Amino acid sequence: MQPLRLCAVSYLNTKPFLEGLNAHFSPQELDVQTMIPSACAKSFLEGKVAMGLIPVGSLLDLKEVYLSDRYCIGASGKVDSVFLFANEPITSINTVYLDHHSRSSNGLTKILFRHHWKKEIQYLQEENYFQNIDGDRAGVVIGDRAIVMKDKYRYYYDLAYEWQQWTGLPFAFAVWVYDPLIVNHSWINRLEDAFEWGIHRIPEVARKWAKTFMMTAERAEFYLTESIDFHFDTAKQQAFALYLRYLAEIEDSDCPRIHFREKIVL
Length: 266
Fold this sequence. Notes:
The strands form two sheets. Strands 1, 2, 3, 4, 10, 11, 12 and 13 form an eight-stranded mixed beta sheet that branches. The protein has a five-stranded mixed beta sheet with strand order 7-6-8-5-9. The mean pLDDT is 94. It folds into two domains: 4-75 and 170-264, D-Maltodextrin-Binding Protein, domain 2; 82-167, D-Maltodextrin-Binding Protein, domain 2 (3-Layer(aba) Sandwich), CATH 3.40.190. It has 266 residues and is α/β, with parallel strands linked by helices. Strand 6, helix 3 (103-116) and strand 7 (122-124) form a beta-alpha-beta unit. Helices cover 38% and strands 25% of the residues.
């Protein structure tokens, strides 16, 4: 029997999930691939994996979405790894460079500018844009590199915090999406048990991976416990549905039909 193919994000915030998977599954059972969020979405959309940790913005490319309803990569306040960087305040920004790593954060930026900051912005996508962030030009930067770049710019806007200030809700950046023709409920139960196991071992995960991500163990543990919220609770599900509606409006597309196990929610 072929192992179940799964893709996950290659950032520090996914390591608790991966730690649980490595402890609970053999390579013969589970083939786990890690990559940047946009590549993870592409891999799932192309049918190369049966389950993936997918940026929520990429779900607009699907008509039907089947989700784990217990876990996500989310934030209940400041996420500390998804920023809009600038050298001038928001009121002076006219151009924003988008980050090719994740459609979710780019979409969140567009939603916030339209509805929260109420500004019309030009959006660009270029390689090596960091040096261009100056004057009226800002840039979206996500993931582990965003954490270490935070002090390089005069202004940094935490996008999860800005969303919460505007909506009163937390945020979910990425969710576990699966192909129901391949991944049955028994698989989901086992995978979610593994995720929970890893989340309960965050201090160990932080010590193991801190140096890889150029952090102290204390900083990594703080990030994984205080900045990231792994539980896809009711408030994050509400935020998830609201975000998809706003992004669908901006992209002039339809929202997918969302299934949490047996329940259709959107």
